[in-house]
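Researcher: I'd like a structural prediction for the single chain below. Treat it as a standalone chain; there are no partners to consider.
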Amino acid sequence: MKSNALAGNKNTGQREANDFYATPSHAVLSLLEKESFTGNVWECACGDGAISKVLKENGFEVYSTDKIDRGYGEGTLDFISDHNIKAENIITNPPYNQALEFVEKGLESSSGKVALLLKLNFLEGQKRKVFFEKYPPKNVYVFSKRLTFYEPDSDKKGKSGVLAFAWFVWEKGNTDKPTIDWI
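Model: Treating it as a single chain, here is the predicted structure.
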């Protein structure tokens, strides 16, 4: 297996275009069981609406955007580029190659919490270490069973993924070391 096939587990050996992997609904529900959010939510990498739909079903007012128009929300809005949009909370599964930029922009663009679904190895790295010292996440929720990202009609559902993921949650103004818990 090629190393670039690990993120999506579609067994094609190729990464998805623009790092798009729709989030399983149970991953979003697991976050909502652990973390409370007050106010509206901006899903700024909404893709096909996987996270937004679960949030709306659970009573949240959700603003959905994405850099790529995939038929859900407002397409062609690049979250990282300059904009004046503010939200109380940001919940998303960002493109993995822009994860740190999404956290930084999320902290600028929200007044409450920023929750990002990221690979657990996001904890590693010299650049991120400096960032974490200045802006520590409040909570990190590690999936005890690895997530797998499937196409809707996949026959591989139920199988465990190859990468470890966690929800990383930042809360505006937090300076305490993070709490780690398992989902």
